[in-house]
Structures are given as C-alpha cells and as structure tokens.
Amino acid sequence: MEKKNMDWENIGFGYRKTDKRYVSEYKGGRWDKGLLTSDANVVLNECAGILQYCQEIFEGLKAYTAKDGSIVTFRPDLNAERMMDSARGMEMPPFPKEKFLEAVDQVVTANISWVPPYGTGASLYLRPYMFATGPVIGVKPSDEYQFRLICTPVGPYFKGGARPLTLCVSDYDRAAPRGTGHLKAGLNYAMSLHAYVTAHDAGFDENMFLDPVTHTYVEETGGANFLFVTKDNEIVTPESNTILPSITRRSMLYVAEHYLGLKVTERPVRLSELPDFAECGLCGTAAVISPVGKVVDHGKEICFASGMEKMGPVIQQLYDLLTGIQLGTTEAPEGWIRKIIDKDQIF
After folding, report:
1. Full-model pTM
2. Separation of alpha carbons 343 and 3, rounded Å
3. Which helix H or strand E contains 254, and what residues bound it?
4. Which of 20, 41, 246, 263 is most buried as measured by Cβ atoms within 10 A of its Cβ?
5. Beta strands in 288-342 (DSSP E)
6. Of 166-170, 177-181, 247-251, which gets the smallest average pLDDT?
7. CA 114 to CA 11: how far, in whole Å?
8. Closest by Cα among 146, 138, 16 to 87
C-alpha cells in the first residue's frame, strides 16, 4: 500500500476521513472484542445518554514517522490511563488500558498510507472517544456505551512557525470547584466555547482562565496548560485540582529537569506574578507548546521579556527536545515511545 498522494507539508490542521476506525460496544456489563470498520457514521437512539445528559469523554494523541522510518506513538499508555480516570469521574465504564493500546496499534496499522512522511511536520492525529449510547430519560448514567478511535492526518498546528499569542484574562470560569475540570470530558470544552468566541471577537488568540473561587490564580486556557519560565530559568507550572493534567506538560517538566537540568516547580501561580516571568507557553498535544507574548488583564498589558516575534530561548529548547524525542532524533526516556510498525515492515 502506497502513501496517499498529498501535499503533506500543506494539509492544514483539520479532519479528513481515513480508511478505518475502531469501534467497541459496552453492553451487559462488559466490553466486546472490538473491530475495525470503514463506516464513519454513528447511529444512536434518540434518547441516548450522550444526547440527553452529555456523558462523553475523549483523548488526543499522535502517531509519527520517526527519522529511522518506523511509525511510533508518544506515551499512549498515559492517554489510556487518563481516559480511565475520566471515565470513572463521569460514571462510565473504563476502557481497559491494554485494549486502548491495541486499538491504537490497529488503527494506525490499518491507516498506514495516511501516516505523513518524516520531515514534513505533519502527523497522524488519533482521537479516542467514548459516549453513552443507552437510552435514558431520568437523570442517571447510561447502561450502554461505545468506544471509538478515529484518525486523521494533520499538518503543523502553526504553519510557518509558532507566533507568540496574545491572551486575555477571562471573565468566565472554565470549571467549578470540585467539579469536572480535571477530566477530559466534552462538556468542559463546550463550557469554554462562548468564552473562546468572545475572546476572538475582541481580537485575542485565547483566554487565560483564573481559579473559580478567588479569581486570583492562573489555571489554564480552554484546551492547554500553562508553563512559565522565571528570569532565573526556573520552570513554574500552575497547580490546581480543576486543571486537566496535560501529558505534554508532564513530559515537558521531565525534559526540563532531566535534559536541561532546570529547577521545576508546580505550585499555585498568582495573576499578579505574571510580570515576574520571562517566558510563557501553552502545552498541548496539537501544538506541543505555543509561546505567549502578552496577556491583557482588562486593558492592562502584561508583556513577557521573550517578546512577540518568536519563542523564548527556554521554551524553544523544550519544544526542540520534546519533538526530537517524538521523532526519534533525541534519545527518549524508557517507555515513552511505542513502536507500532518497524521500518522494515513499511511498503
């Protein structure tokens, strides 16, 4: 099977229907064996739990063509574990870790012609998700669920390089205290959409959400964790029980400490501290890390020393190291890279 005939360096970041996706059903208290299908449509009962009470969770990860020609994924075990945590928090049956990893392997292998070549900056984005399919009318968890894993090739999140972003301090709360902010549930993202559109309409790239109790501590954006660099090159990241635990952020902190020898601290970060930081970045699967050049707090501009032209030097190092680990140009810590297809097995 040959690679798809595509302009891989210019495919953009969007959805394309690929050949196969994985589907598994939960009925009668257990998950079935699961299978690959070419059918991209989902058929639901009109009273399905996802439609009535928004029982849904998801994950996001990527498969890459490494420098040696093999096809790999980056820390999918952590995505599996986080999805299990999200399921428990939403009263859904956890999808077993080994079945999750097998589904990733099957989908990538079945769509091998859609995996972008090395050096193009593109990757195969994987979206595992689970939702309630059983009919419910009273407010309660469903008895039936479906797990699906789809994939689509995507280009670099930032075409032509990462431009430093301008954020605004939001007037909205992303999550409630002791709520679902720490879970990767679709309802959390739905709650952030109005704030996202409002920020865009005002000319900003994203929101900076503050803690929902005092509105004095930095939390996250609608879909990424914050990472700050002090003027002494210490890495600081906000700590809160309403922040989604980012796998990219977790990996960045390890790289900062063990590859660059930097001090790493996870603690509550006050909004008033922002002028003291030299660099700021947003961590997530799609872009890895996005530089932030400026935060606007109701008309007051907070500018980081790294400026509005390019990534700051420390964030650039972290980006280069982590993408190097993902693509096989930098030695990875043990267990971080899962090889799905060896180079000798490809075409």
Report:
1. 0.96
2. 14
3. helix 247-258
4. 246
5. 288-297, 300-303, 337-341
6. 177-181
7. 12
8. 146
